[in-house]
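Example (one chain per record):
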Amino acid sequence: MKSDFSTSFTVPNTAQEVFDAITNVRAWWAGTVEGESKKTGDEFTYRYKNMHYSRHRLTEVIPCKKITWETVESALNFVENQQEWAGTTIDFDITASGGTTTLRFTHHGLQPLLACYNDCTNAWNHYINGCLRELVLLKMLKTTAVELIRNCLILNSVFL
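Predicted structure:
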């Protein structure tokens, strides 16, 4: 039975805010990202020191719903089979409901039998549930702060 790595989080943000954060890969995936990551057909490379290189192609982009990356190339220099990610796919499924949005991340092909599984799942948990989630929440906090400042300015102009 296949057991692809999957994780998820729910935030009080819009699906658009979650979608925008995912497509801004440079903002949440530490390392060097080159190329584009916004629309179907875009390709980008990711490098982290001399440990990780991968090239990804966006094969499906449905705004505010789903993004799929195909891993076209990989060089994971910390395992014997450096191509473990090559041919795998990564799905970002976005579901909005009742004022919250859930992101389900699945790396199809990243399974417990792979040598990189423990290191890679630890890294994905850090990037998805840490960096990406925080980026999404920061957007909400910035929006709220701007609204609060705007409201204060309006009240000040009315009462002063």
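Caption: Residues 5-159 form a domain with the Alpha-D-Glucose-1,6-Bisphosphate; Chain A, domain 4 fold (CATH 3.30.530.20).
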